[in-house]
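Appendix B. One record, verbatim.
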Amino acid sequence: MLAVGMIVAGKSTSLGDFAVTGRNMSLTVCSISIVATWFGAGPMMGSAAAAYAGNTLEVLRDPIVSGVSLLIAGFFFARIYRRSRRYTHIDFYEDRIGGPAALLSVFLNLIGGIIWLGAVLFAFGVVFASLTGQPAAYGILGGTLVIVVYTMFGGLKAVAATDVLQMVFIIVGVLILFFVVVHDAGGWATISQQLPEHAFDFSPPGTTLKDYFDYFQVWLSSGLVAIGVVSVVQRAMAARNEQVAQNSFYLAGIAYLVFGMIPVIAVFSIYTAFNTATVISMIGLSISLGFASMSGPYLLVIWWKKLTAPGGFAGIGVGLVTLVVANTVWPDLPGSFFGFCASLPTAVIVSLLTQRSHPPMPYHLSWLTGLEHCRCFAESTNRKVPVTFRSKGNWYLSGD
C-alpha cells in the first residue's frame, strides 16, 4: 500500500490534485473509493460481534443505515457537492453562516474523525495481534505510519489508488471467508438452525420510550452521517462530473449493503473472543457529536435559503448544550438524538426572527440549478457577479 501510494503521489502537482484528484475521478474509481472509505472495522468486526452479542441496533447502524446514508447523500447532495467546485464541505458553512461556524465545524469534525480513526486502528491492531502474536500497539503504530505517509505526500489521489487495491483484497477475502466458514459449519441449513432469535430482527429492541429513542437515533444519526463526513464528501467533489458523483454514491450504497452483511453472517459461525463490539460503539460515538449540533444546521445550509448566521449559530449551540445536558441528566438515553431535535427547529425559528437584522447570506452562485445564466448575487450584495454556464453536465463560473 505504501509503494502504491508513493508512486501515485508523484502525480499530485497542485492543490486540486492533492485534495480532489483534479476533479477527474471516474465512476469506477469513485464508487470503489467511497465503499473503501465506508467499509472497514465497523461491519467487518464491530457489527458482527455486536450482532452475535444480541445488539442488533448496532448492525442496523452499520452496515444497513450507513449504507442507506450513501444513497441519501447521492440523491440529495452529491450533485450539489460536485457543482460547487469546493474542496471540502466546510466551505458551505462559511458561505451561509460565516467563518466562525466553519472553524467550529472543523473542530467538531476533527474530534469525530479522531474517534473514528481510533476505532479503525484498534481493529487493525486486534487483527495484527491475532495473526502475528505481537502486541496490538505495534500494528496500530505501523498502520498509522503507512497511512500518514502516503496521504501526506499523495493526497486523495494516493488514497483513491490504495482504496481500489484494498477493496480487491477485501472483496476476495470476505467472499473466501464466507464460503469457507459456511462450508465448515455444515452449510447454511445448519447455521440457520443455530442462529439466535434476534439475529436479523431490526425492529425496535423493546417497547419502552428509551427503546424507541435509541432506535430513531440510529436511523437519524447514521442515516445523515454520509452528508457531512469530509472523506466521503471529497469523493463527490472529485468526481468527473455531477452524474458520476451521484451514480457513484448509488453504486457504493448498494455494494455496501450487500458486502457489509457478509461478515455479519460469517461471524455468527466463528465468533471470536475479541471485544470488537467496542469498535462499532466508538464509531457511534464519533457520529454523535456532529449529529447533535451540526447536522440540522447543515441541512438548512444546503436546502433552506432563509437560514441566517444567527440561526445557524443558535442551532449549533443549542444542539451542543442539549447533548451535554441530556447525557448528564439522562445518561441512559441517546443525548445526540435530543440535541438534533433541539438544534434543527432552533435554527429555523431564530432565522425567521432575524431575517431583517441579519439577512440570509446568499447561496454561492455555483450551487444553483435551473437557469443556464443568472446574476443571482446582484440583488442581495449590490455587486456584479460572473455569469454561470453549463458544460458537459457541470456548472461553472466564467473564468473557472
